[in-house]
Amino acid sequence: MTKGTPSMGKKRKITHIRCRRCGRHSYRLDKKYCSACHYGLTTKIRKYAWQTIGAFLKYSK
After folding, report:
1. What does each C-alpha distance from 55 to 39, 45, 47, 60 come to in angstroms?
2. CA atoms of 18 and 1, how far apart (whole Å)
3. β-strands 16-17, 27-28: how paired?
4. Amino acid 32: pLDDT
5. pLDDT at position 52
6. pTM (two decimals)
7. Residue 42: HSE in the Cβ half-sphere, 13 Å Cα cutoff
8. Is 18 left (phi over 0), alpha (psi -120 to 50) or beta?
9. HEC string of 1-61?
10. What was the pLDDT predicted at 59?
11. Domains of the chain (ranges plus CATH)?
12. Measured between alpha carbons, how far is 14 from 30 in angstroms, rounded to an integer?
């Protein structure tokens, strides 16, 4: 088995598909949950305060 560049061309496995809840390409097939909204893990949508701080600072002037 060779290492390096020739081996990189064999990586054809699909790991993520589009999430049915948030629509992002973040639903991981092997772990059965979305990394963007945590669909499959919890019923609450994943959100943090630091995600919206940029919009807050942009319009607070």
Report:
1. 24, 19, 14, 8
2. 33
3. antiparallel
4. 96
5. 77
6. 0.68
7. 8
8. beta
9. CCCCHHHHCCCCCCCEECCCCCCCCCEECCCCEECCCCCCCCCCCCCCHHHCHHHHHHHCC
10. 63
11. 14-59 (2.20.25.30)
12. 10
Q: What is the pLDDT of residue 61?
A: 59
Q: What are phi and psi of 56, to 5 degrees?
A: -65, -45
Segment-wise mean pLDDT, segments of 10 residues, the chain, 61 residues: 82 92 96 96 90 68 59
Rg of the Cα atoms in the chain = 18
End-to-end CA distance of the chain: 59
Can you give the pLDDT at residue 29?
Answer: 95
